[in-house]
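Run log, item B.
One chain of 221 residues. Sequence copied directly from the ordering sheet:
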Amino acid sequence: MLGRFGWKAGMPTIRSQSAAAFAGDIGISTPLVNLPHGDCTERQSECLAMPTGEQARLGVSEAPDPVLDLVTFYSQTLGVPLRRDVGDAAVLRGKAAFYGAGCASCHNPKFVTSRDATNPALRFQLIWPYADFLLHDMGPGLADHRPEGQADGYEWRTPPLWGIGLTQTVSGHTFFLHDGRARSLTEAILWHGGEAQAARDAFANMDAATRKDMIAFPESL
């Protein structure tokens, strides 16, 4: 299956992404990724000797069925926040600048979901994620030199922009990109390179008023 989740599109499904996060982020094993000692290596004998959260009465893994299924269902069905200021003049000017700069070539506005989605509620739905979910070479400035799956150290999956305007409200900060280096959407755009260099340069060459309008557009998503 094609990867669609994770910073480098290394996971094909929300279920596999959730299981990997259980194991890698908080060291909890699931039926899909049964690593009760988290990311302990074979050489870390003391780590492997530590007690785990497995309970015989619950079966194998620390988060046995249906925990992973419930977390997957919750993640799959989270509602996208309602857009704001859709008809605002600045937002509309920013939308034109966004398209004019070529941002939509990767931050693809819309898709129709598959008719074969496992959950009937998610089938054949028009969605507006502003992402193509594909890998792109983002240049040396953003390179982490860490391959994952078939992605090399320069490649990143286009992240969806829907809901990005509520980052401050939801998370209490405005840090962006994979490592939070960008302190604003403006900085996030200016870090773009590689395949996005032309779009980044178009933004940098806009007058201050147009740049402000362009930032207003993703803030409305």
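Observations after the first pass:
- DSSP finds eight helices and four strands in the chain.
- The mean pLDDT is 94.
Flagged for discussion on Thursday.
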